[in-house]
Write a structure and sequence with these properties.
about 230 residues; alpha/beta; Rossmann fold; Arc Repressor Mutant, subunit A; 2 domains; five-stranded parallel beta sheet; four-stranded antiparallel beta sheet; 8 helices
């Protein structure tokens, strides 16, 4: 279900947009002016924003949009406006809008445009973390926690665990690990994988927590992801 923020000062229009989006399977939050909308957009998590261009007060739609983009918030925004001139559309898009729909409009078209923006966001959102049971790996900082406690891993150990977390619940062979983590061909027997897995396992289980890396004889390893 997509969650949509609607920033619209006209009560009737906001209510009609809300009803159309709910009928389309969305969850909706309404903000009646620029300041309230900006606060909600900054603090909440939304798949898309419907933003009225002509909001009352000192913070209009373009002001809200410019502030959001300057703050590094890239939630897709559909601008609604009675201003249909080409230069107004260009101003809206240059301010950071993703789409522009002029009033009056058909609600079917509005919901279709929102669907496109919400899908675009879900595809574009980068993966920043991995979870497997109570293990969490931060892909940006290359840090790992178990049950909220930081685990001190060497770079190779981190890459080994990351690969196993990406394949949690599946058997990963020594050949797979050697080629994907070490980036070498696995041409002859070596215990380098077993040594690193053993050290990694000890660090993960240092707090006395249950085993998560299981050896599968003759095959390789499985990282279990218990609840």
């Amino acid at each position: 279900m997509s969650t949509i923020l609607v920033i619209e000062d006209d009560v009737r229009t906001a209510s009609e947009i809300e009803a159309a989006l709910i009928d389309n399977g969305c969850a909706v939050k309404i903000a009646a002016d620029g300041r309230a909308g900006l606060l909600e957009a900054v603090t909440g998590k939304y798949d898309a924003i419907v933003l009225d261009r002509m909001l009352p007060g000192e913070l209009d739609g373009l002001g809200v949009l410019s502030t959001l983009r300057a703050a590094g918030i890239h939630t897709p925004v559909l601008i609604l406006s009675a201003l249909s001139a080409v230069d107004e559309r260009v101003r809206g898009l240059k301010a950071g809008g993703d789409d522009y729909l002029t009033k009056p409009f058909e609600f079917l078209e509005l919901t279709a445009r929102i669907d496109v923006l919400a899908r675009r966001r879900s595809v574009a959102m980068p993966e920043t973390s991995l979870r497997a049971g109570d293990l969490e790996a931060d892909l940006l900082t290359h840090t790992v926690k178990r049950a909220g406690k930081l685990i001190d891993l060497l770079p190779r150990e981190y890459r080994l665990l990351e690969y196993m977390m990406r394949h949690a619940g599946q058997i990963v062979t020594r050949t797979m690990l050697f080629e994907e983590v070490w980036h070498y061909r696995y041409d002859e027997p070596t215990n380098v994988i077993d040594v690193h897995v053993s050290k990694l396992r000890k660090k993960i289980e240092a707090t006395g927590a249950a085993t998560v890396i299981r050896t599968v004889r003759g095959s390789g390893y499985v990282l279990d992801a218990p609840d």
